[in-house]
Amino acid sequence: MARDSAHREIALLRARAQGLFPADAAAPGPVVGALLALQAQDLAAATWAVGARSPGTTLAGVRAAIDAGEIVRSWPMRGTLHFVPGEDLGWMQRLTTARLLQQARLTHERQGLTEPVYEQARQVAVAALSGGRSLGRDAFQALLEQNGIDTAANRGYHLIWHLAQTGTLCWGPTAGNAQELVLLDEWVPHPRRLEHEEALGEFLLRYIRGHGPATLADFVWWSKLTVAEAKRGLQVARPQLAERRIGDASYWVAAELDGVAPDAAQRRRFASSAWLLPAFDEYFLGYRDREASAAPEHHERIVPGRNGVFQPIAVAGGRVVGTWRRRMLGTAAAGQRLGIDVVPFEAVSAAQAAGLRRAGERYARFRELRLGEFNLGDFNPGELRVGDTAAQ
């Protein structure tokens, strides 16, 4: 299989695993459950990552799933905020927390954050939030200050991170464009409890089911488990996985999908498919090797300066062909509309261009707005412009 053909095959199968093609009618909770985790440090972008995989869902619907505790936002891995099913957060953190705390130790010590400070902050949190209460970030940090705990110079963030990473806090109900902090054991009263080996197998299996085809190296990058832990997870999950040769490389897929190849009609539909996906979307971010979804020469346009800030992406035929941003048009009094600008760095067909416009209309419906303008810029391979991660 030629390299380009292999990349098209991988892209189609990954889009299918991620619920992007064909997009089904899954509700927000099952969307997150199917992928296990979606990166979510940008809350607005993460809600659209769910909405893009849940046709008919609105932003209000995703927020309702968050408010009901079906989707929980916390730090399950990589020291980064993710959406996860609430019941799965605890066992994920038990696999990842010790290493993350060790990595953060010197930074925290330089800030004067020691075990006695953590414990005092934990007692403040439990006293303030017990009984189903919640507090926004600023209010919680003010409470820490009132109890003699210095939150200046980013110490407040690190205290929240530590309390969440060690299972005391998580982000709970929405409040405007943010969330409030709650006690994890109250917000998720019935967590799944897995033994260590079982958890390693579950971690790998859920990643492959929601992201495959993928390699063990992809999983190690995504989870930040060690190679030894990943190999042990593979031993546990092996009966539910299948190894599949695509091009000149070997990938893992869910056993139930092994041999279920897309037919010619699916391939044609995929070639003309188009999506507008948010910043930090798993379709591009969720792999160590991203060549199946974007040409290497475009990676810096998606992650300018390779600084870890992923831009919103326009995808056509499974390939990232540009970035995009949205603009608000009009006034609230007159009825606001949405403007979308796509900056392409690959040529798109007429069918794909029409698909990108439909994707813009779908995003507008998600925001319960009307699409007022859609601009697909001229293809200019030498021009570098990027989207606005705050725009979703």
Pick out its properties.
3-stranded antiparallel β-sheet; 16 helices; alpha+beta; disordered C terminus; 12 strands; 5-stranded mixed β-sheet; 392 residues
Helical run tally: 16
| Overall geometric form | globular
User: Would you tell me the structural class of the helices and strands?
Assistant: alpha+beta
Helix content class? 40-55%
Q: How far apart are the first and last residues' alpha carbons, in Å?
A: 38 Å
Explain what this protein looks like in three dimensions:
This protein has 392 residues and is an alpha+beta fold. Helices cover 44% and strands 19% of the residues. The protein is built from 16 helices and twelve strands. The strands form four sheets. It has a five-stranded mixed β-sheet, with helices on one face. Strand 10 and strand 11 form a beta hairpin. Helix 5 packs across helix 10. The longest helix has 25 residues, at 86-110. It starts with a helix and ends in a 16-residue tail after the last strand. 44% of the residues are buried.
